[in-house]
Amino acid sequence: MVSADPYQGKCHLYTQPKDGEYLTELSVAFGADVDMTTTPLELTLKTDEFPRD
To answer: Taking the CA atoms of the chain, what radius of gyration do you get in angstroms?
Structure first.
């Protein structure tokens, strides 16, 4: 799961779901890439154009 927070200017990537929780969380500032190549999505999310509030 990926969430984007325009107030903090960060993206959060949650992986490895188990028993209703995510075991791994990665936070990156807008402008950095979110590397999801090791997940079933197998892609990189560019955040450099995400709006900030």
So the answer is: 11
